[in-house]
Write the structure tokens for this entry.
Amino acid sequence: MKKYRYIMFLLLAVFVATSCFSEDKQADNNEETPELKEGHLFIIGGGDRPDSLMTQYLALGGGSKARVLIVPFASSDIEDTGSYQQEQFARLGCASSEYINSPKKLIDSEESLAKLDGVTAVFFSGGDQNRLTDYLQGTKFLAKIREIYKNGGVIGGTSAGAAVMSKIMLTGEEENVPDKYKGDFSYIKQGNVQTAEGFGFIDSAIIDQHFIIRKRQNRLISLVLERRMKGVGIDEATAIIVKPNGSFRVAGQSQVMVFEPEAQPTISPTGYLKTNSLSVRILTAGDTYQL
């Protein structure tokens, strides 16, 4: 009996020691790899912004307690665009929304940067994406927006504000075609679609907007094949809501098209792109997809 009790005591001692060691090791691992936070992207294809859609955007930023900053620098009329969007957010119950109207040279001033203090949701308005990137690329203001996103905020945008979300940004310009055809995007050719550097919240796909209603398949397919990247075309009054894990859900009234290149394309002597393997998905509200 004494021998049995001695063995049980040894086993219990080993169990306790092992448990303590495991807890210490787990604590050490937690210190080495802190939890990473990241927010949501709310990317609208332009056109109408129905209340039902924008309510979902506000919910991600805290609902009635959301603190929203509208960034209307893509627009040629900052005051009108900013106030219009502010009115919608106020009507939907957001008590704290404002827009920034700062000269480009003062965008990194203390006053401008203070506009982002405590903000839980940023919204890029429509207009010209080239104007928006010229305004913000490489600024402290944009860096602070990235921090809001990394700390759980929601970054939204429509039209031009959608185009800037991807690292490879469509400028809206066409190259290597006669001037009278520029902007028509009548071809699926190499080097046909002009791009610039976007804000890069998404780096695994190229975003296009006003997609189905303006029949923009040619220009996105050209880039998808040329860059061998996924392409996401978002129609008007429709959004993709991108979660921290890289998946998105479609919301809104129309459709989203996703193009996936599955093989290396070939190029004809005249520059036309060819492939026998291109996956196309057409998604509607409620559908999900992993970027």
Notes: The radius of gyration is 24 Å.
